[in-house]
Amino acid sequence: MTTRILFVCLGNICRSPAAEGVVRAMAPELVLDSAGTSDWHSGEPPYGPMQGAASARGYDLSGLRARQLRAQDFLDFDLIMAMDEDNRANIEALRPAGNGTPVHLFAKYAEGQGLRAVPDPYYTRDFDGVLDLIEEAARGMLAQL
Ligand code: 4NP
Fold first, then answer.
1. CA 13 to ligand 1 centroid distance, Å
2. CB 113: neighbour CB atoms within 10 A?
3. Are 17 and 34 in contact (CB under 8 A)?
4. Residue extents of the structural domains in the chain
5. Cα dist. 125→1, 60, 110, 115 in Å?
6. What residues are annotated to the active site?
């Protein structure tokens, strides 16, 4: 069975579309999507500086469009990856009764770094650093599927 993975951040214009693009490049057979806990950027492409940093590494995020997380996502995906603890709490608040879809912190899969969050480059401006972390977490996550 194909594994379906949803990546979730706050705005769905930086961290989660970058994670989607990186994992798609590494594992094109998986069904992937990303979403935001907010609707602040719904319909928008990934943030320009994030697209630029990703593009420099060969990841094309230009076709992605932000959308808000919805309860149906718990049924449509096998795994949900949260970029930070706030995201995870907001994701859990939408969980349908009786649903058991795992929600994990994506940063945990970055080997040996002891991280619980993917820092938000919208605020840190470290778009390259966040891609390093996302690539590392992507490799770790894929090794555990
Ligand atoms: P993201 O980053 O959650 O990684 O997409 C953000 C993008 C935009 C905002 C916050 C976080 N914002 O406040 O508009």
1. 6
2. 13
3. yes
4. 4-144
5. 38, 19, 20, 18
6. 9, 15, 120
pLDDT tens per residue across all 145 residues of the chain? 679 999 999 999 999 999 999 999 999 999 999 999 999 999 999 999 999 999 999 999 999 999 999 999 999 999 999 999 999 999 999 999 999 999 999 999 998 878 989 999 999 999 999 999 999 999 999 999 9
Amino acid at 84: D
CA dist 18 and 54 (Å) reads 7
Instruction: Tell me the CA–centroid distance for residue 98 and ligand 1, in Å.
Output: 30
Q: What is the third-level CATH fold of 4-144?
A: Rossmann fold (3.40.50)
| CA 50 to ligand 1 centroid distance, Å | 11
Question: Within 10 A of 103 (CB to CB), how many other CB atoms are there?
Answer: 17
Residue 9 amino acid letter:
C
pLDDT score at 87:
98
* pLDDT at 1 (0 to 100): 67
Which residues, in sequence order, are bridge partners of residue 15?
Answer: none
The response to whether residue 59 sits with its C-beta less than 6 Å from ligand 1 reads: no
Q: Give 104's strand partners.
A: 81
139 membership: H or E segment, kind and range: helix 127-143
